[in-house]
Description:
The chain is α+β, with helices and mostly antiparallel strands.
Amino acid sequence: MRIAFYLAIAVAGFVLIGCAAGPSAAQRTVEQFRAKLAAEDYADAQAMMSPDARRWFDVKQGEGMPWSVGSGSTGPWAAWDKHFNKRSEIIQWESGENQVAMVYRETNDYFLLLDRGWVTNRNTYFLDDDGRLVGLLVAPADTGARPQGRTTEFLTWARANNPEELAALMPNGNVDPSGDHPQRMRALLNQWRADSGLPPLK
């Protein structure tokens, strides 16, 4: 009897541990959604979303912006990310009621050209009671300062050596990813690196 009792406890504990370790239904939905995006199966991915899905950046406040998926739905940043070889790796998942957050590290050639390394972000996906995606919040994973690397050095050099090009690529101090700006930004960064005695990144 005693052996059977302890065996029953062990089996129950295994079942509880196994359940706790498995991904939540929300996480499985997001993983399936991301897989469809990666496969460029945009129609099926869009079918997993609410027709009035919204998206926020940094802070979830107000009604947000319309959120849709498709080959052109991410705007000019899609071309920027492709040119600069954006890559990321998932660190962990955090599940809550009708939401799941994906914490991940991300970098690209633009960051590496500035010696900024990796940044850590959190994508929080919101779902309705039917399991449809209704919102996405993209925000830094921590409240600390973002790594800047040699950004200040680059901007100082560009203002002194090619202010017109810098103004075109970064109007009002913010990157404009449109048109041929990714290619021109890479060229400007490599010109700065050459003048600064730093190795280029092709």
